[in-house]
Amino acid sequence: MSLLAALAGAAFALAAGTGSVAGGEQIYRQGISPRATPLQAAVGGGTVSAALLPCMNCHGADGRGRSEGGLRPADITPGALGRPLRDERRSRPAYDASRLRRAVTMGLDAAGAALDPAMPRYALSQADADDLLAFLAALDSRASAGVDEGRIRIALLGADAVAAPQEEIYGRRVELLRERRDDVALVIDVGADGAASLRAAAADAIPTIVFEAGAAAPGAAALVVTADPARRAQALRQWAERHAALIPQPGCADPGIAAASALALDAALAASCDVRTLPAAPARNLRLYLAAPPDPALRAAVARALLQRLRQSLGALGREVSRESLFEDLQRWRGVSLAGLPALDWTRGRRYGLDAVWVSRLDETRTRLLAEPGWVELAQ
């Protein structure tokens, strides 16, 4: 950013500094007022809930705009808004807080000209408008968080022994942090349960990859390596039905276990009981349905593979990488195999990568799990 643009952005930030950044983020990302007041948006001659048309849908998490459906939404970062615009189509002066408030609520640019009709006009209270402007004033610093001249900071959890790639990317080295912080571009959690990281991603909107979702669901800022827990549970139930197998109650205190010829357990059930103490009969047909082999070395290998694959993404994205552009790239990973796992696919509408579940059988001595049949594709 030029010095002039930086000074203009700073002046805009000072003018818009009376609101709550957190409240403005809620309005920007969700179209919901922090005051629980319904927000309305006028577009195309009608009025709808602002929750259906939040700002982020078109302008992106970083405010830089994303082409979609033939439209190119404006760059609304402080550096862009805080400097005059003059091109072959139109010109306008720099925005200040009052002009930006008018643009959001009335659909008029800094020169008083009508904005594109596709831009909704939001009915905001004074307090909600102050919050939104406070958030917009902070967009430049938030978008570039984790990226500076010499470093790209990534938080890596659950794999302390994994080192950062040594090769620089456009003059930047990857710096791994072992804790989640606000100043990282990406969080990777390859621990056995990534639920806490998913909940944090929902709160702070930092792009996050977890190996296993646990009891949490990925939100708009998170991706999961392993398969959807609901689909894994469905696969277990289908196997149990085909083999007349019992799915025991948590704790494995189910009186029907002794008479059951087959048992089907998922990771949570297996963790709630000691299968070695079960009656002898089920041992010859006991199946565990897991997200992946229960092997910390595998999760560390996945972390290394993720970092190497990220190097390719960062190289392709160029020098002007941001959280937003990195997460956009992650959602285009197709057929990517990490450390011998089945190929994963992520898209904007698909948050779980794998379409396979790890199935193992307890051997007759009950001392080890056998990879039989191993990876099993889930039905679509």
UniProtKB/TrEMBL annotation:
User: Which part of the chain is the Cytochrome c domain?
Assistant: 19-140
Keyword Iron in the entry? The reply is yes
Under Pfam families, the record lists: Cytochrom_C
Q: Which PROSITE patterns match?
A: CYTC
Please give the residue ranges the record annotates as the region Disordered: 63-94
- InterPro entries assigned to the protein according to its UniProt record, in alphabetical order: Cyt_c-like_dom, Cyt_c-like_dom_sf
Biased amino acid composition, Basic and acidic residues = 84-93
Q: Where is the signal peptide?
A: 1-15
Q: Which SUPFAM superfamilies match?
A: Cytochrome c (SSF46626)
Which keywords does this chain's UniProt record carry?
A: Heme, Iron, Metal-binding, Signal
Record protein name field: Cytochrome c
- Source organism (scientific name): Tahibacter harae
